[in-house]
Design goal:
heterodimer, A: alpha+beta, Alpha-D-Glucose-1,6-Bisphosphate, Chain A, domain 4, about 30% helix, globular, B: alpha+beta, Aldehyde Oxidoreductase, domain 4, 3 domains, 7-stranded mixed β-sheet, 5-stranded mixed β-sheet
Chain lengths: ~150, ~775
């Protein structure tokens, strides 16, 4: 499964970057995160509820940030394992400043196994895209109100 | 023999119990103290197992035990056996549960035993398995590429076997002489059987007698007992009783020895309580042996008169991650040997490469190899006719083996015993009104409507099988059949057949044979099958063998019964044995029909033995083991008429005509039902079904939502007819009809769709012919 897209924030790049490096913000951005704790440098452990329709469950996830190049780029890997399968997602986030604010470009790929894939394959991509869009809207709201 | 029953379209005797919910399937059974097993299955197609943590599951209330593959192997459990060996083939071990690595999605890594099914399923989620995920490959051709991830260390190139049949040099020579050659690349896609009753197993161990009983959804309980007891679990055969009560469909998928029944049998002793497992439908999708999955390159050489000179076939057969019980036989001896079809082809050469992939094992599925062969030859014949500008029916007729050439030795090992291919073709053409239909097709094309007419002239080798022949080809068993006929003192009869039923109506068809042979009412005949505790060793049901092999064994026993009864009757009638005639259930002295003893009177005397021939043993029962002399060769012509909507790509089947020759028909109603079901499965493959794996070897079509089985509205009302060319070498003259529909239908449907699409210049589309594929092909052919 592949995801990619762009999003414009009417906010300066440093603020966007700061939010994206804040674990509390990441926890609010990612779908279904119930707990997120740093366990090392740029490594977090999380508990997430993931699901598509009836195929849902609580997943243990490890989130690793790498290639950190403030305030422009990082790579994020999410490895989640749960009763209905596993998710291994790997992607990049790139920020560019322009006169009106900041443009974010994201792209990534996820390998999904188990029931999540075999029952949910057709719904996986639209669902993931929906969750990403939601997360980005939340982030924008956070940046513009705070 | 009077035929009051044979040939009569009787309703099935078993149907009242099935349609009123009184059948007994494995999952209906229960035992005191029964506990339930649920399987922990791998979500990965290929991974190393780093650790399995049982603790949380074991702490869950109601959980009795958790076992892993290592637990089983440490206790001495062996690999599941493969029942058909080819020279030089790789045979990596297949343990009931994965020990070090998992090799397909759905492979079992642990089993949870709990007080009830719900607890067991819940606790499956508490077993934590640490995997190291490895790269995987699902596609047979990709698995052969250099650098593809290896499924087994024993086969680093993923090749299980390379096999060939026919004369390579002679075939090359035919192609050098050819006026025209026709080449096709075909995919015969992977199918998932989907029997209506999921697989199930319940096992009990009795420590007092050291005996096991296993109730299992099996098409061949004795074979199950032999393979599981002797080769896997090390249980002495006489200490394991296998019972297969009513079985709700199998289509081959219930022939094989699977991990689950092995696990519950072993676990029943470990936990000291009976253990049951029943597959959830999702488990069936990943764990029932799949069918087909061939990638084929085929070429036909034709001379200037339109006679076929040679056939060259190269097939990659995807075997899945492990060798299922009969897997190696299907794409080889049940495939390559059928490539001559109904045609006189002087030279044939076929090469098959059997390949391991990270997918569910592949084995026999209705037709097993023969639908694949029919699809290759019948698609090629159609394309050749079109490219030579000949009518597809006439091109076939020209190349048929003529009736005076039987027995006919093909270049691919089989000797066809009988056949009249033109007879079936003519009848089918007549039913469909071929000439008028072609005119109509032309007229409709003028109006922008696209109908197509597709042929499939198929041959089948069934009645599996002569033991010596299959033994020389690699089968690890003889494939004869047994029958024990027990006449009770009142003349009622119980027949114990070594064949089995998974829904084909044996209790009716076999009883029809018995009642006629003995001249007794059918109500007096009981057919017993599926229990190693009461039935003599038998080989089960597959390969359309029950009537020709199982039925013939019954006839042999009935002959012994009648011989002995005649001796008793002669004594009672005070006549010479050779003067006693048996007719309509009565023994009488030749020419004096008034002086008779009924079969029932004779039966009673056999047990009383008061007034009895000196030297003759009391009692009246006989058993026989029938080993067929040859395969049987049903054949026929199927014609499918379709309409394709060029705007949507949707195919509608307008008519489906099937003329089959299965020899003599015991029960036309049952035979017709078999043909209906077979065609439905063939149509399913042609238009709808397909197992789809993604690039990580995840099965995407793992539920009824994503795997399209044919439904009533996908099918027309079938037009069924027969020709009758009796099988010359078995006592009933029957050939078997369980698979004909599936063997014929894919080619008939696909040929019809390609005929409809001919005006667009479309030559071939791989199955399933979904609206999307057809729509795209039309768009590419005719840019908008």
């Amino acid at each position: 499964m592949r995801l990619q897209g762009s999003y414009r924030f009417p906010t300066a790049i440093d603020r966007v970057w700061g939010a994206l490096m804040n674990p509390q913000v990441i926890a609010r951005l990612l779908p279904g995160v119930e707990r997120l704790e740093p366990v090392g440098d740029n490594v977090y452990e999380a508990e997430m509820r993931l699901g598509i329709g009836p195929i849902s469950g609580r997943y243990k996830a490890r989130i690793t940030l790498s290639e950190i190049d403030p305030p422009n780029h990082y790579r994020i890997r999410i490895q989640a394992q749960g009763p209905q399968g596993t998710v291994d997602a790997n992607g990049t986030i790139d920020l560019t400043a322009d006169e009106a604010g900041t443009v974010m470009h994201y792209e990534g790929e996820a390998k999904v196994t188990g029931l999540l894939m075999s029952l949910g394959a057709r719904l996986l991509e639209p669902t993931a895209q929906m969750l990403v869009n939601q997360g980005l809207k939340n982030l924008e709201a956070l940046l513009t109100t705070a | 023999m009077a035929t009051r029953y044979f040939g009569v379209a009787m309703k099935r005797r078993e149907d009242p119990r099935f349609i009123t919910g009184r059948g007994t399937y494995v999952d209906d059974l229960t035992l005191p103290g029964l506990v339930y097993a649920a399987m922990v299955r791998s979500p990965h197609a290929h991974a190393r197992i780093r650790a399995i943590h049982k603790e949380k599951a074991l702490q869950h209330p109601g959980v009795i035990a958790v076992f892993t593959g290592k637990d089983m192997v440490d206790s001495g459990v062996k690999s599941l056996p493969c029942g058909w060996l080819l020279p030089g083939m790789k045979l990596p071990p297949h343990y009931p549960m994965a020990v070090d690595k998992v090799r397909h999605v759905g492979e079992i890594v642990a089993v949870v035993i709990a007080e009830d099914r719900y607890t067991a399923e819940d606790a499956v989620r508490l077993v934590e398995v640490e995997y190291e995920v490895l790269p995987a490959v699902a596609d047979g051709a990709k698995a052969l590429q250099p650098g593809a991830p290896a499924v087994h260390d024993e086969a680093p190139d993923n090749i299980c076997f390379r096999w060939s049949i026919g004369d390579k040099e002679k075939t090359e020579e035919a192609f050098r002489r050819a006026h025209k050659t026709v080449k096709l690349e075909l995919v015969n896609q992977r199918l998932i059987p989907n029997a209506i009753e999921p697989r199930a197993a319940m096992a009990q161990y009795n420590p007092a007698t050291d005996e096991y009983t296993l109730w299992v959804t099996s098409q061949n309980p004795h074979v199950h007992r032999l393979l599981m007891a002797a080769f896997v679990l090390g249980i002495p055969e006489h200490k394991l009783r296998v019972i297969s009560p009513d079985v709700g469909g199998g289509f081959g998928s219930k022939i094989f020895v699977y991990p689950e029944e092995t696990i519950v049998t072993w676990a029943a002793k470990q936990v000291g309580r009976p253990v049951k497992w029943t597959a959830r439908r999702m488990e069936s999708f990943v764990s029932d042996a799949h069918g087909r999955d061939h990638i084929t390159e085929a070429e036909l050489a034709v001379d200037e008169k339109g006679k076929v000179l040679g056939l060259r076939v190269k097939t990659i057969a995807n075997l899945g991650a492990y060798l299922s019980t009969f897997a190696p036989a299907i794409p080889t001896y049940l495939y390559g040997t059928l490539l001559s079809g109904q045609y006189e082809i002087p030279a044939i050469y076929c090469e098959v490469t059997g390949v391991f992939t990270h997918t569910t094992p592949v084995d026999a599925y209705r037709g097993a190899g023969r639908p694949e062969a029919t699809y290759v030859i019948e698609r090629l014949m159609d394309v050749a006719a079109r490219e030579l500008g000949e009518d597809p029916a006439e091109f076939r007729r020209k190349n048929f083996i003529p009736p005076d050439k039987f027995p006919y030795q093909t270049p691919v090992a089989l000797q066809y015993d009988s056949g009249n291919y033109e007879g079936a073709l003519n009848k089918a053409l007549e039913i469909v009104n071929y000439k008028a239909l072609r005119r109509q097709q032309e007229e409709l094309r003028q109006q922008g409507r696209y109908i197509g007419i597709g042929f499939s002239c198929y041959i089948e080798a069934c009645g599996i099988a002569p033991s010596q022949v299959v033994g020389s080809l690699g089968a690890q068993a003889g494939l004869w059949e047994s029958a024990l006929v027990r006449v009770h003192p009142t003349g009622k009869v119980t027949v114990y057949t070594g064949s089995h039923t998974h829904g084909q109506g044996h209790e009716t068809a076999f009883a029809q044979i018995v009642a006629d042979e003995l001249g007794i009412p059918i109500e007096d005949v009981e057919i017993v099958h599926g229990d190693t505790g009461s039935v003599p060793f038998g080989m089960g049901t597959y390969g359309s063998r029950s009537a020709p092999v199982g039925g013939s064994a019954i006839v042999l026993s009935l002959q012994k019964i009648k011989e002995k009864a005649r001796k008793i009757a002669a004594h009672l009638l005070e006549a010479a044995e050779e003067d006693v005639v048996f007719e309509d259930g009565k023994f009488y002295v030749k020419g004096v029909p008034d002086r008779f003893k009924t079969f029932q009177e004779v039966a009673l005397q056999a047990y009383l033995a008061h007034n009895y021939p000196p030297g003759l043993e009391p009692g009246l029962e006989a058993s026989s083991f029938y080993d067929p002399k040859n395969f049987t060769f049903p054949f026929g012509t199927h014609i499918c008429v379709v309409e394709v909507d060029p705007e949507t790509g949707k195919v509608k089947i307008l008519r489906y005509v099937a003329v089959d020759d299965a020899g003599r028909i015991i029960n036309p109603l049952i035979a017709e039902g078999q043909v209906h079901g077979g065609i439905a499965q063939g149509v399913g493959q042609a238009l709808l079904e397909g197992a789809v794996y993604d690039e990580n070897a995840q099965l995407l079509s793992a539920s009824m939502l994503d795997y399209a089985l044919p439904r009533a509205d996908d099918l027309p009302s079938f037009e069924i007819d027969h020709t009758v060319t009796p099988c010359p070498h078995n006592p009933l003259g029957v050939k078997g009809i369980g698979e004909t529909g599936t063997i014929a239908a894919t080619a008939a449907v696909v040929n019809a769709v390609m005929d409809a699409l001919a005006p667009f210049g479309i030559r071939h589309i791989d199955m399933p012919l979904t609206p999307e594929k057809i729509w795209r092909a039309i768009r590419e052919a005719r840019p908008a």
